[in-house]
Amino acid sequence: MISIPSAGGYDKLEYRELSEGEFTEGANIKNNENITEDDLVVVKTYASGVNYADVCIRWGVYESAKRFVGWPITPGFEFSGEIESKGKNVTKFKIGQKVFGVSLFGAYSKRVRVPEHQIFPLPEKLDKNEAAGFLTVALTAWYGLFELARPRGESWILIHSAAGGVGSMLVQLAKIHGCHVVGVVGGSHKVNMAKELGCDHVIDKSKENIWEASKYYVPKGFQVVFDANGVETLLESYNHLAPGGKLVVYGFHTMLPKSSDTGAGYISIWQWIKIGINYWYTPKFDPLKMTSENKSIMAFNLSFLFDRRDILEESMAQLLYWVKQGTLKVSKVTPYPLKQVAKAHSDLESGKTIGKLVLTMDE
């Protein structure tokens, strides 16, 4: 398992072997009185997904981790594996059955305990690593698109970081829904992947101005813009909405450093100052102006919605159907051994990765 004793750099990612019968578990188990020991399963994990939120947890800036757990903490929201043991109320799964699931932290571990309703049979269309990297990004994309944005077919949608984990899912789900997509990527090596995912147009922001290009492709503005960048693009994302358009915010990546000044993974004093400056310059939106312009802004963080079992069940029913049909796929997956978690975090922070990163439990 990986444990983080306090905020900091890569040296805070401490590895240790679990003892016999030991496991990590999701924070919602102790925080929800409706979950009992008889409702729980212990999963021997094959792999665990790596998300940018995990980096923020290590830095000590992820709000739900501070609120629900504190220090020490084992990060990780998603996993694949097989059931090792289960409570007497668990009837949908058998010992040894291959599954994948979500956890409110705790998934960077060779054995994790979660409620039964948070695991699902491993689909035939996904291998162990793909399954481990699927759920967090797919659920985030589904919630943002179908629960919040609710676009009509033929809508034009702008998706920042279209070749990333969430972005790649947003592109596919938007196309399944019959929308047109303009995807923004951060480098030439990501353009082909964005096109293969289904983007109607791809903007390479390393070579062209995002907003000039988006205005060229969609002169009248977008019905929806998905933005996890924050201060760098938030205002212009709003400005490029069409009347009736919705800006959906689910992260603030550009507020935080892409890599450490020291190379050790911790945030330097100068980077903290820059974070403060970026916070100061984060746009504030006037409700009166928004009303007259007929534009909306929505924001969310699914780690605060783990008690919404109805959302999990509805979203997974649709997502698993599309996976089975072959219309929804996991983009490129890059595996790292669990002991190389620092390398995975460093690569993810660089902004150069494509698709999803996962930690494998094989030695």
Fold and architecture overview:
Strands 3, 4, 5, 6, 7, 8, 15 and 16 form an 8-stranded mixed sheet that branches. Strands 11-10-9-12-13-14 form a 6-stranded parallel sheet, with helices on both faces. A two-stranded antiparallel ribbon has the order 1-2. It is an alpha/beta fold and 363 residues long. The protein has 2 domains: 173 residues, Alpha-Beta Complex (Quinone Oxidoreductase, Chain A, domain 1); 151 residues, NAD(P)-binding Rossmann-like Domain (Rossmann fold, 3-Layer(aba) Sandwich), CATH 3.40.50.720. Helix 5 packs across helix 6 and helix 5 crosses helix 12. The chain has 13 helices and 16 strands. The two termini are 13 Å apart.
State the main characteristics:
Rossmann fold, ADH-like_C, 16 strands, GroES-like_sf, eight-stranded mixed β-sheet, alpha/beta, Quinone Oxidoreductase, Chain A, domain 1
